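=== RUN LOG ===
request id: a7f3
mode: sequence -> structure
chains: 1
length: 199
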Amino acid sequence: MNEPSPYLPPLPEESSHNPYAYAGEPTVVKVFGILHLVFAGLGILGGLWGLFATLFADRLMKLLPSSPELDQQIQAQAAMQEKFHVTSLASSTLTLLVAVPMIIAGIQLLKHRKTALKWSNIYAFSSITTKALNLAITLLFVFPAMRQMTSGLGSSPMTATMTGGAVGSMLALSAYPVLTLILLNRPPVKAWFKQLPDR
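=== RESULT ===
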């Protein structure tokens, strides 16, 4: 009595076998494709500026007008930059390196490539790892050196503030790669990537 009508069209093959299958492109794929490219561009600009500031800061300081107070500040700044030269170069270089898989992932997401999810995960894990390394370097090397250089200024509250700021910044900057891992690796989105043709 309740037999299915022979006039009903059959379900698409993918939908009948995969309960997570999307009928079309998940919105999150396009959104993260665009955001990846935007943030990668900003990361490249920030990394290049960091390299420029680290390599040429001493020359730029010489262009400033001379005065006793300013000269003292410039000397202190130059000493601090010289002490953190290697860590600054490493941080800027890591920022540029992380931008590479991010750009590849962004392009592949917008072009619906099957390997886009893999590249996006590579970016997310490398970004989180890089931020954790930068935080460790800051807490273990940069802040102790700054405390030593300012030991006579009674700057313990300032040091505590900087430590809290560094940890807070790391957590805030890690929000995007964490969201990338969560939203792009949901079962419906992963199923959509799996049904894409190999290109």
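=== NOTES ===
The longest helix spans residues 27-61.
The helical segments are 13-17, 27-61, 68-83, 85-110, 116-149, 156-173, 175-184, 187-194.
=== END ===
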